[in-house]
Structure formats: structure tokens, C-alpha cells
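Q: What residues go here?
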């Protein structure tokens, strides 16, 4: 069942990707709607797949790289659908849909052998921690995509030519506002996720903070986005500077998510073993 469901999920995501790319070139409304509906269908199948994994194993499916990436793709798709409905930022689908497709395909190819589950790993605090962190990461990931689109559109405007991207990308103000919303939402979720993680750590390892590499880099990432939000609200970091910082922040996120687990040893390493 899992193989069939993930195959159908990938097919829907691929069809969504094709529709969004076609929409970028042809600017036909039905193509955007098709991309959105295919993504919704993929997200539904994705949700069923994760729910089935939870029911089958009796715990949240985050015990290997396969499950971790599967949850990552699900979170990105879900956050994108919510924000697309709110801001009607159609063109962001050319970033979100291919990314979700790639992550889901890679997850399907990663080994699915789980680490040995322990009773403490079924803690409700772990569930809150993982889900909130992953959705927060998804928000930051989409903020990076919005930042890239901002820089592309800004370049098109400065070139004073109504070229390909100028006519297809939204206003800089909409891109900036959407990017800020992604970051603000992601920061709030990351903060709550870290707090629940500290509580979980107390039960699992006997203390709230153990200087685990993952904890340290999660703290660094939290400080990075805290500074970014502070500078925006107090100093007025907007536009190009905010877009560049959102891209840098995503690089920090990637190292926190992958680099720490593969290069440094800690409590979280087992969850992303190949």
C-alpha cells in the first residue's frame, strides 16, 4: 500500500509541477488551477501516507531519512497551499511544486529501516516538537523561494525592460509582504517547537539543554531569524536586504537539518541515517 500511495503522490506532484511551469510561460488561468488542484490531491495522498505510517508503527514517522524527508515534503506542500490561498501568489508554485516533488522522490528512494523506537520517543512533547519544527522549516523554505523571486523581479525592474519575468512576477511589495509573513510564521512555530523540544529533552535525557550540536545550531538559526525580524520591525530591513537574508537563513536551515546530523554526532543523528 505504501509504495502505491507514494507513487500516486509523486505523480500528482509531478503533474502540479508541469502545470505551474506551463502557467509561467502561457499565463493561462486554467493551468494555475490545475497546478493547485494536483498539488491538493498530492497533499491529500501524502497525508494518507503519513497517517498510515503513524497507525502502522504506533509513533510519529520520523525515525529515518525516508520518513523525515517524507514529512518535510508534506509540510512544504501544506504551508504553500495555505499561503497561496491567503496571498494568491500563484507564481510561487514554480518553486514550491518542483521542490515538493524532488523531496518526495528522494524520500521514496531513501532506506526505510527505522532506528529502534523507545517508549520515551512516543512522548506528546516530541509530537508537538517535530510537527511545529517541520512546519516552521517549511515556512522558512518558502520564504527563501519568495526572496529569490523578489531579487529576480527587482533585477527585471532595474533593467527597465518588460521582459519575461517582469510581466509574470507580482509586485515587489507583494513579494516582500509574503516573504515577511513566511518568516514571522516560521519564527513563531520554531519558537514553540523549540520550547516543546526542551521539555521533551528533560524527559528523554534528564535536562533541558545538553549542548547537542543540533540544539546549538537550532539556537543559532532561531537567533538569526530573531535578528532578521527585529531589524525589519525596528530598523526597517525590507526589500532586497530582507530577500537576501531569507536566502542566507535557508542555508543555515539546511546545515541545521542535514549538515549537523551527517557531520556532527548528537542525539538527533539516528533519525537521518541512510
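A:
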Amino acid at each position: 500500500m505504501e509504495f502505491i500511495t507514494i507513487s500516486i503522490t509523486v505523480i500528482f506532484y509531478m503533474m502540479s509541477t508541469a502545470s505551474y511551469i506551463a502557467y509561467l510561460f502561457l499565463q493561462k488561468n486554467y493551468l494555475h488551477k490545475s497546478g493547485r488542484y494536483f498539488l491538493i490531491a498530492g497533499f491529500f495522498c501524502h497525508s494518507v501516507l503519513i497517517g498510515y505510517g503513524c497507525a502502522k508503527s504506533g509513533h510519529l514517522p520520523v525515525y529515518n531519512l525516508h520518513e523525515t524527508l517524507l514529512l518535510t515534503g508534506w509540510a512544504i506542500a501544506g504551508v504553500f497551499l495555505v499561503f497561496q490561498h491567503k496571498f494568491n501568489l500563484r507564481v510561487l508554485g514554480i518553486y514550491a511544486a518542483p521542490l515538493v516533488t524532488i523531496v518526495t522522490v528522494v524520500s521514496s528512494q531513501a532506506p526505510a529501516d527505522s532506528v529502534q523506537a523507545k517508549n520515551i520517543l512516543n512522548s506528546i512533547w516530541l509530537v508537538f516538537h517535530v510537527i511545529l519544527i517541520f512546519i516552521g522549516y517549511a515556512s522558512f523554505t518558502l520564504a527563501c523561494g519568495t526572496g529569490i523571486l523578489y531579487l529576480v523581479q527587482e533585477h527585471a525592474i532595474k533593467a527597465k525592460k518588460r521582459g519575461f519575468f517582469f510581466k509574470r512576477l507580482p509586485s515587489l511589495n507583494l513579494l516582500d509582504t509574503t516573504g515577511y509573513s513566511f518568516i514571522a510564521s516560521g519564527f513563531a512555530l520554531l519558537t514553540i517547537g523549540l520550547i516543546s523540544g526542551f521539555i521533551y529533552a528533560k524527559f528523554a535525557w534528564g535536562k533541558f539543554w545538553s549542548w547537542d550540536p543540533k540544539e546549538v545550531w537550532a539556537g543559532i538559526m532561531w537567533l538569526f531569524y530573531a535578528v532578521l525580524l527585529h531589524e525589519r520591525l525596528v530598523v526597517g530591513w525590507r526589500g532586497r536586504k530582507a530577500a537576501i537574508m531569507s536566502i542566507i537563513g535557508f542555508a543555515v536551515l539546511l546545515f541545521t537539518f542535514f549538515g549537523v546530523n551527517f557531520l556532527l554526532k548528537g542525539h538527533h543523528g539516528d533519525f537521518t541515517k541512510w
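A: Context that may help when evaluating the design: The chain has two domains: 1-114, 118-274. The mean pLDDT is 88.
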